[in-house]
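User: Can you predict the 3D structure for this chain?
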Amino acid sequence: MTRRREAELAALFETASELAGMRDPDAVLRSIVRRARTLLGTDVSYLSMNDPAGTYMRVTDGSFSPLFQKVRLGLGEGLGGLVAQTARPYATADYFADARFNHTNPIDSAVHDEGLTAILGVPLKLDSKVIGVLYAADRTSREFPAEEVALLQSLADHAAIAIDTASLFATIQSHNEAMKRAEEAHDRLTDLVLRGGSSADVAAAVGELLGGQVEVLDTVPTPAVRANGRAVLLDDVWVCAVLAGSELLGGIALTGCPDLPNVDRRLFERSAVVTALLLLLRRTVAEAENKVRGELITDILDGRDAAGLLARARRVGVELSDPHVVLVADGNLSGATHYASVHRGLAGSRDRDVVLALPSRSTDVAREVAKALDATVGACGPVAGPVAIAAAYEEARRCLKALRQLGREKDAATMDDLGFVGVLLGDRADVSGYVRSVLGPVLDYDSERGTELVHTLEVYFRCGANLSRAKAELHLHVNTVTQRLDRVTSLLGDWQSPDRVLEVQLALRLLRLTG
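Assistant: Here is the predicted structure, written as structure tokens:
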């Protein structure tokens, strides 16, 4: 008896030493069950763990029944349920004949399928809390003396401490891993900020760290998300507001991670703060750059040093020596500034209008700007260089004035589009420029060859477009007059259509008035 007791104590010390060195909770449980079977010399040993619904089978040793290995006991059901409920050991030499236990069909079926008869169960306790039950069982009838009950209880006590230690170690390890991930995330996000990364870069980095997809939103869907800047789960999507103080800058959304641990949720919320910082930095830089661009357009229109203006423009990514279309609009300055910034141009204010200089080889851009700004736009160009841009501004401004007087709100046009109407309605109209735009080829032909095509046109219109009267006043044969008018057609195209004939007559009258 003494030798057996000494062997049992040695086995207990060995078991305690082995359990103390284990850090894997599952390995601890397997070792406990194996030692219990060895120390008591039973056919089967097993361990169940408690949860709010009762106790469930966790580990077995010597078992062959799948039904038994998956059995669950409600609180107070079967021998194990009674042990878990009362926190006291229970033993039976013949389970099925023992009326002390609440026999249920699922439990009895599992015990019968395993072929068990004698069962001893002792509680695994941490302080006064039962966390599980440790069992030793035989397939034949057997009494469990007090010393065996005490032996299994001692093992269970050691096991409970080992389980708690292993769980604590796992918690610490998990916390350390979370801290390591958080540190890695902090370093990556800080690096993105320092390198001038975008909010999209932050979204990609955080999505990679969390194992999901992160998207930057223009806004957030509900006031609840905006309230405190915390992450909220909406239909399996985590959403967090991007706030600068009380100002809502947008939001971020995380998909693919509906079960987000607290540590990862805090990382996601931190990424919203970093996103807010980047958006504020971008806005500040944009405001400073837009101020520089606005000052540039003002200095160009004031006729400042051209060489200095070229260099200043290059510093903000604008090459003034390239072709630019100049626009004058009645839209808002902030919208014009944003449009110009996106299209690598300049924008500023002049009097009550906004002025844009956009890199383009076509005035078609004027209609795009009119639509984008919901504005009326006068255009001129393309031109290159500060001096030409300043001159083009004057024509674009006159064009805008003409559009207003015509009632063509939210429209866009150049002086060429308006024709003689622009000359009549524009401020400080370019009369000689208009005359040349209409009659230039005829004027050049007369100048180079000494002909009188312009005079022939004047007489022709003065005679009411009557060839007979015109040839009499010109003292020419009617064929000669016809030949001259055909020459005008070859130079001007279809000048006798209703719109063109009016422009030609107006140009002839302006030519006569200006000498």
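The radius of gyration is 47 Å. Residues 5-13 have pLDDT under 50 and may be disordered.
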